[in-house]
Design brief:
The protein is of the alpha+beta class. It has 24 helices and 21 strands. The strands form 3 sheets. Strands 2, 3, 4, 5, 6, 7, 8, 9, 10, 11 and 12 form an 11-stranded antiparallel beta sheet that branches. Strand 8 and strand 9 form a beta hairpin.
């Protein structure tokens, strides 16, 4: 059921083990040059040290250093939130117009930070001791939570003996349930600035129409820069800060890559379920994905109405619109591809074969897993109604903050730190506060009010949730406006334990409404937590049986979980349909063709394919520019979180920046296919063309090409 060739995304720590395979595929580097987390390399830089996880809380996408002065390349859509916030602060729409810094003094402060993975340490023995000691599923889940948080807190304290708060982040990640746990240590760079971002007409060329499609012509890249204190240490924003000097950076190729060339990438892919039993796949197909399609579609419809209120409202809602739109189309595509490829039927046949080999033990495990997902399905309607009242998945920021503050102020604050839920422990509070401050800053009250009304309506069928509406009252708009003001003014102070602020939020209407359903929330949360704990125990047994009854050459690597990974493949087209063969590269000529067709009414939304006139004029003056490569297609194994991953050639030179998959690759969460799984990146030659020729920024171009 598993092999290295079938599961083509590996933890960074597996680099040494898979090196013969990478070498056979075309890699010309050594394992020691790639993985800086497992080898003692001294002063020698490694590619993993050039990788960063980037976002408002250090997570969201992948980026990589491409100069010795902290210059980071990532995706336009990964940098989207930073550029959106900068636009609101400056009252300029940098998303629509683009931005190109003339000098370092012009680079724009952002709310982003980036994290560099510096070490990976196996802590499975300590966690497994806790797991084996507790038979009760709920108590075991809580014990694992406490153990992993304690390990991370201890490591973080050791990593910052000088007490420098926030410069290091340690987390324990489950790699294989009830088997493998790894402590990841990351350096946090807290001052990240915007250097270059193409206009939306290029960075999001094709919009939703081209999303997850090929051929693609999108300039989905952006440049950021990490800064540090004058002595090189991580530091929050200051005018005295200087560009960060990374231990490692990736050389930018000027020649790109061609068909059949070997490529590999590093990144932080979010999640996969490659070993999922039929019961879990059916739950995804019948419950999780359809529910998200319906929910996201409803919210996108609301956004399309409320973004028209004002330019400020449009900017505030763009983050939700971008994220929800991407997930909406991705979920719809997953349903189609799962059924088209007959994934459930294929997995069912594998399970039948396993039962034939392993007998009653395998059947018992699979039957209980089916029962667990049956219970989760029975809970799903209540869970969805409860989630809506908590404002998750791009819902109301007021709902979200009200639930947070109720849980912390009324329940978690009084507990000893080691007894709190994970997110409310002292070491996690600063990140939590930062996230929720951003949520409240971006509230558009008419959107929030409509989402709240929908959430209350959906919850009305459950008696345990009915008290929420009674507390909010009939005038949702007035209640929402008042609470937004109270919560915005007091959130940070209340989370810091300020008595007056805590009292203010305790009396807030949305905090009290959240309190009315808190007991029901805890019961549902703990029931789900116990079921997942039991599921993980059974899943570990299933993996053990699969190993015992598979060939010696079969290797089981952990599913993706947001930690640093390596994947490899080749630049390659694919057979899209009968008599339709897609090539592996697009050019600037295609940008002009699509833009022209849209303007002529021949296909596509003219706003999604609105190529800047300046670019059209430039190509018309020099037709040879039309041959500039735009996007590249390759067979690496990617999922969400690989956005911004550097795509490198056999020598480790940057040839593209990963940003998408084509439609057939949307089933990558469940299975990688040599025939269908293709990832899409911005060709480095398009990046250099736009920075150096289109925008004429010689300063940045020279830095990228190391000509300073």
């Amino acid at each position: 059921m598993a092999s290295p060739l079938r599961f083509r995304t590996w933890p960074i720590t597996a680099t040494k083990n898979i090196f013969p395979l990478l070498q056979e595929m075309g890699l010309k580097l050594t394992a020691e040059e790639i993985d800086g987390t497992s080898f003692s390399c001294g002063a020698k830089p490694t590619f993993s040290e050039a990788l960063v996880s980037v976002g408002s809380t250090g997570r969201g996408g992948t980026g990589s250093f491409i100069s010795d002065n902290g210059l980071i390349i990532t995706n336009w859509h990964v940098a989207h939130e930073a550029v959106r916030v900068a636009s609101l602060a400056a009252d300029k729409d940098y998303l629509a117009d683009g931005f190109s810094a003339n000098g370092q003094a012009d680079e724009i402060k952002s709310p982003y930070e980036c994290w560099i993975t510096t070490s990976c340490v196996d802590v499975s023995e300590r966690v497994m001791a806790v797991i084996k000691a507790e038979p009760d599923p709920l108590k075991r889940a809580n014990a694992v939570r406490d153990c992993t948080q304690a390990i991370a807190a201890e490591a973080q304290k050791v990593a910052t003996p000088d007490g420098s708060e926030g410069s290091v982040r340690c987390d324990v990640q489950e790699m294989l349930p009830n088997e493998s746990y790894v402590l990841f240590t990351k350096t946090r760079l807290l001052d990240v600035r915007i250097v270059y971002s193409p206009p939306k007409s290029l960075g999001n060329f094709g919009g939703d129409t081209d999303n997850f499609e090929w051929p693609r012509h999108t300039a989905d890249f952006a440049l950021l820069r990490a800064y540090a204190s004058p002595d090189g240490a991580p530091a929050t924003y200051s005018e005295q800060n200087v560009p960060y000097k990374p231990r490692s950076s990736i050389v930018v190729s000027q020649s790109g890559a061609e068909n059949d060339d070997f490529v590999f990438l590093l990144g932080f892919p979010g999640s996969t379920m490659r070993y999922a039993p039929v019961s879990r796949l059916r739950f995804e197909d019948e419950v999780t994905v359809p529910a998200r399609v319906a929910d996201f579609g409803r919210k996108l419809s609301m956004i399309s109405k409320h973004e028209k209120v004002s330019p400020e409202a449009a900017l505030k809602l763009k983050g939700h619109k971008k994220g929800l739109g991407n997930e909406y189309k991705r979920c719809k595509g997953k349903i189609v591809m799962m059924r088209k490829l007959g994934l459930i039927k294929e997995r069912a046949a594998e399970e039948t074969a396993l039962i034939a080999k392993a007998g009653e033990e395998a059947k018992k495990v699979l039957d209980r897993l089916t029962a667990i997902y049956g219970e989760l399905k029975e809970m799903s309607a209540f869970t969805a109604a409860q989630d809506a009242l908590q404002g998750i998945y791009g819902g109301s920021g007021v709902l979200s903050a009200g639930n947070l503050l109720n849980e912390y102020v009324n329940h978690e604050f009084a507990k000893a730190d080691e007894e709190r839920e994970s997110r409310f422990r002292e070491r996690n509070l600063a990140i939590l506060v930062k996230y929720f401050k951003n949520r409240l800053n971006d509230v558009v009250l008419p959107y929030d009010c409509e989402d709240i009304a929908d959430a209350i309506k959906g919850a009305s069928v459950f008696d345990e949730l009915s008290g929420f509406a009674d507390i909010i009252g009939d005038d949702i708009q007035a209640a929402c406006a008042t609470s937004h003001e109270v919560l915005s003014a007091n959130l940070e102070k209340a989370m810091a334990g300020d008595a007056a602020a805590m009292e203010a939020v305790k009396n807030d209407r949305f905090v009290r409404a959240a309190g009315s359903m808190y007991d029901a929330y805890v019961r549902n949360r703990d029931k789900e937590r116990a079921l997942i704990s039991e599921r993980d125990e059974l899943f570990a047994k299933l993996i053990e049986l699969m190993r015992a009854h598979s060939g010696k050459d079969v290797v089981f690597y952990p599913d993706c979980n947001g930690t640093l990974r390596i994947s490899a493949g080749h630049v390659s087209g694919y057979r899209a349909a009968d008599a339709v063969q897609h090539l592996s590269k697009t050019t600037l000529a295609g940008v002009l063709d699509k833009a022209g067709d849209a303007k002529a009414g021949g296909g596509g939304d003219v706003h999604e394919f609105d190529c800047p006139d300046r670019l059209v004029d430039l190509v018309q003056r020099d037709p040879s520019k039309a041959e500039t490569p735009c996007c590249l297609l390759y067979s690496t194994d990617t999922v969400g979180g690989n956005s911004g991953s550097p795509v490198m050639n056999a020598n480790g030179e940057l040839v593209a920046v990963n940003f998408d998959r084509q439609r057939q690759g949307l089933m990558n969460e469940y299975k990688w296919s040599s025939h269908f799984s293709r990832s899409i990146g911005v060709d480095v030659r398009f990046v250099l063309f736009l920075v150096g020729v289109y925008d004429g920024n010689e300063r940045i171009l020279k830095e990228m090409l190391r000509k300073e």
